[in-house]
Amino acid sequence: MLFNSSSQPTLLSRVRQHSLWLALTLFLLFSGMTLFIVFALEDAVFKDQLKQTYHVIQQGGSLPANMTLVTQTDTFTLSDSEQLKYFEFDAHFGEFNQGDQHFHFMKTDLGVLLLNSSELGIISRAIDDILVILLLMLLPTLLLTYWFSNKLSAKALQPFSKIHHAIASEHLHINEFKAALCDIEEQDIQVIAKKLVTALEQKTHLLQQQIAFNQGMAHEIRTPLQVMSHSMELISASTPEVASLKSYHRLDKAIARMHRISSALLWLTSDAEEQHTTQVRHILDTVLSESQALIALHQIDVRINEPDPLNALKLPVPETVLELVILNLLTNVIHHCQTSEADKYWQISISPSQIRFCNPTVQTPDETSTHENFGLGLQLVTALMDKFNVGFEAQHNNQVFSVSLSIKKPGP
């Protein structure tokens, strides 16, 4: 279609669309001017006939059959609509309708000379043919305008298209982006592009600093974690009665969680491309088993729905990372399941392509509260899932907070 009604228009499509509207407007304007000029030429012919006839009767000649000289003009009155419709610049000439007949007149010192132009109007009889010709010209005009606007807009927006192609590429490289700017001659586009380059360089530098900080923190944490783990083992070996204390178990779980966080940060900042296949149900059972006391303490009803256990869901995520994500989701349920003790639940639905976690909440659904629901932050969990190409979605709906992890479909 010539007029594209896409819900997400581009700058190029907008230029083409507005060019077509401009062409259509100009076509209608010039068509109206053409009709006006044609009728004006016909009026000029009738005026010339009236003038010639007036000169003839001044010299004693007779009137033609279609003309009449009227001295009493009381019977001929022009309404305001006719005066507006048949507007004349010269006050001595005019035209009007009376019944089924159309008249042109000229005011003279002898009276009003009337010309019955009902049968003389060539343009009036040929108006249908004129309109057909104009309509036939409309389609090629629009096609030509579309072709011309397409070429013109593509040429005019070529610098913008280069910037868009460079930025929209899947793997953006600053050096390639700078190279694309060398061919741009337009000064205003260059200013915008340079601002974009500066912003991208700053973002890249900040991201590199953040990655280096995360890697450093993850490595630095591992040494004291190993010391803490060995110390816990020595304490349990030397003093067996300590291992039965709740405080000992809480400390042991805290150390295990710190190990998971450290490993996840290392995975997040690693450039290594490794293949992982993790049984989701196995990791889920492990986390629930380790957290059984915590679940019982907060009276959370864990409901697992897996219609097809034989076709188990597998995600391309390391076990440590998936354990960390599921633990954070459980922590979210504990801290933000704002319902009565009897109504607390954690609904887990597993399908061959997705695992979905749901819990009730009466919290006002907004982006800020959603980010605060996670111990590590929603951004980090999202980044971990994106790192391993796993779909992640969190949303509020009817006082239910849900999170889903799904296998992404391969691109075309």
Automatic annotation (TrEMBL):
Catalytic activity: ATP + protein L-histidine = ADP + protein N-phospho-L-histidine
GO function terms (MF aspect): phosphorelay sensor kinase activity
InterPro entries for the chain: HATPase_C_sf, His_kinase_dom, HisK_dim/P_dom, HisK_dim/P_sf, TCS_sensor_his_kinase
Domain Histidine kinase: residue ranges: 216-391
SUPFAM superfamilies membership: ATPase domain of HSP90 chaperone/DNA topoisomerase II/histidine kinase, Homodimeric domain of signal transducing histidine kinase
UniProt EC number: 2.7.13.3
Record key words, sorted: Kinase, Phosphoprotein, Transferase
GO CC terms, sorted: plasma membrane
Superkingdom of origin: Bacteria
Protein name: histidine kinase
